[in-house]
Amino acid sequence: MSKIAAWFEERLGISAVVRFGAQKQVPLHKHTIWSYTGSAILVFFGIQVATGILLAFYYRPTLEAANASLERIMTEISFGWIVRSIHSWSATFMIITVFVHLVSVALTKAYRKPRELTWMTGALLLAVSLFFGFTGYLLPWDELSLAATKVGTDIPKAVPVVGEWATKFLRGGDDVTGDTLSRFFILHVTVLPLVLLLLLAVHVYLIQKLGMSLPLESEIRGEKAPGMSFWPNFVAREAAVWLVLLGLLITVAVLFAPSLGPPADLMAPAPEGVKPEWYFLFLFQTLKLFPAKVGFVSGETIAVLLIGLGALALFLLPLIDNRPETRKGKIVAAAFLAFLAYALGMSVWSLL
Amino acid sequence: MKILYSLFSRRRFLNGLLAGLGTAFAGTFVGPVVRFVTPPYREPDEVKLPLAGYKDMAPGEVRSFPWGIKPGFLKRRDDGSFLGFVGVCTHLDCNVAYKADQKKFFCACHDGWYDEDGRNIQGPPPTPLRRLTAVLEGEELVVRKSEA
User: Fold this and answer.
1) What percent of chain B has pLDDT over 70?
2) Measured distance CA(A77)–CA(A75) in Å, rounded
3) Which residue of A has its CA nearest to B71?
4) Element (H, E) at A26
5) pLDDT at B7 over 80
6) Phi then psi for B63, rounded to 5 degrees?
7) pLDDT tens sequence across B117-126
8) A326: burial class by Cβ within 10 Å (0-12, 13-18, 19+)?
9) Fewer CB within 10 Å, N side or C side of chain B?
10) Can you list the domains of chain B with their CATH numbers?
11) Number of other residues whose CB lies within 10 A of the CB of residue A151
């Protein structure tokens, strides 16, 4: 046995990776708990890949068959209902964890020099995750998913110059049709996974290269936090968290399996009480509130430009907040909290 | 005239040339790919409906018809002629419903309202519903895109 291991070791040199893991120190301080969110996201992503592959064995991305194939998965295939339920809930859990991860990094200002690119790749990963959710939402092809996709793909139209083309590209034409469904499916199962893995590789590489950040206060005071070896000590603690989350996920997935509406009808009016996935609710409510016209410009254009500006500010946050320990840093933190409060408030309002 | 000093080394020149040619070569693929991923428009120029299905409409009544792959609505005017609408909300493209009891078109996505002539009266819709012209040709009702 050890001979076989030695044969592989001579060729692969895996022990170097293990040594790196053992040398890598996770600093222990009052914000260390947030370090668990990163690997939790990876766990949920792994579950998405596994359950997604299983669903794709039976799912058919066409206008005629999509809804029926999902019905078959949920009623005829052994364990089909729970595979779909886990895929749907794991998406929600992943997005929640992504948000917690983002907020913790923003509030501890862990994005400060030299970790700007780590934050930026993270922001792009958030965009990819949301796009995953958006494309996945259409695939059941029921009334709700059709209405949500019509609205979602119409939003870019309000962007000057490239908007029309972007909408056409997303839809595969001027309207949401069977072409949109094929397109969303292929984006969901090939393009987005590849993009996500690529960004993830850069994100994780940067974390290894730059090491884990210290709290801003201790860095200013020049303190050194005590550390814990990443492998195997910290990973063992993370594994305990993964197990708890897995238990939670499966419990929720069993108790609250998602429903499937009747097949989407391109001619039917939008169903009443239509709402997007919870993480788009604040955008939904914003679009609902903007009046038809603000001065000479359509309210929609202004809303979309504001949303775009907000997204850009989030992406560039480390460059905007370039002196985090000064008064400017406090203002940025306050603005971020105000944005959080806005998003939360709007989401709650949309549910009333 | 002989240039004494070169601003470029031969290596830099060749690298730049290679990169430029490579970019230009890759660029020739962009156009076709961009056009491939955006198919041509397929809204119909006109739709022919058998008059029999719409003849019995009372003045002011609204009835739906298929405008290509989108819902359309026909309204009977008081003088007996027809007025057509594309039943798609001008805000964010959801299909609208006609509420006969209130004589209004309603979009459920963001609470948009239009009156019976398709004028946007409440909520976020920025413009009226798109109008279509409907003319009688023998036993057929021909619905066309409006010029205006």
Assistant:
1) 98
2) 6
3) A267
4) strand A25-27
5) no
6) -135, 150
7) 999 998 888 8
8) exposed
9) N
10) 46-145 (2.102.10.10)
11) 24
Q: How far apart are CA B55 and CA B134, in angstroms?
A: 13
pLDDT bracket for residue A295 (50, 70, 90): confident
Give whole-number Cα distances, A78 to A52, A54, A70, A71, A87, in Å. 16, 12, 13, 13, 15
pLDDT over 70 percentage in chain A: 100
Please judge whether A172 and B37 are an interchain contact, meaning their C-beta atoms are less than 8 angstroms apart: yes
Tell me the nearest-neighbour CA distance from B10 into chain A, angstroms: 34
* Amino acid present at B48: K
B110, A175: Cβ pair inside 8 Å? no
C-beta of residue B97 within 8 angstroms of C-beta of residue B105: yes
| pLDDT the model gives residue A288 | 83
CB A82 within 8 A of CB A254: yes
Q: Has residue A163 got a pLDDT over 80? A: yes
Q: Using a CB-CB distance cutoff of 8 angstroms, which residues of chain B are in contact with residue A288?
A: 110-111, 123-124
pLDDT 10s digits, A136-159: 999 999 988 999 999 899 888 888
Residues of B in contact with A283 (CB under 8 A): none
In the 3-class helix/strand/coil scheme, how is chain B assigned residue by residue? CCCCCCCCCHHHHHHHHHHHHHHHHHHHHHHHHHHHHCCCCCCCCEEEEEHHHCCCCCCCCEEEEEECCEEEEEEECCCCCEEEEECECCCCCCECEEECCCCEEEECCCCEEEECCCCEEECCCCCCCCEEEEEEECCEEEEEECCC
Q: Is the pLDDT of residue B148 over 70?
A: no
The confidence score (pLDDT) of residue B39 equals: 78
Neighbours of A241 (CB within 10 A): 15
Which domains can be identified in chain A, with CATH numbers? 33-259 (1.20.810.10)
State the sign of the Cα–Cα–Cα–Cα dihedral A205, A210, A214, A217: negative
Q: Which long-range contacts (CB under 8 A, 24 or more apart) does A110-115 make?
A: A110/A213, A111/A317, A111/A318, A111/A321, A112/A213, A112/A216, A112/A318, A112/A321, A112/A324, A113/A318, A113/A322, A114/A210, A115/A206, A115/A210, A115/A213, A115/A318
Residue B133 scores a pLDDT above 80? yes
Q: Residue B96 and residue B106: Cα distance in Å, rounded?
A: 5
- pLDDT for position B147: 63
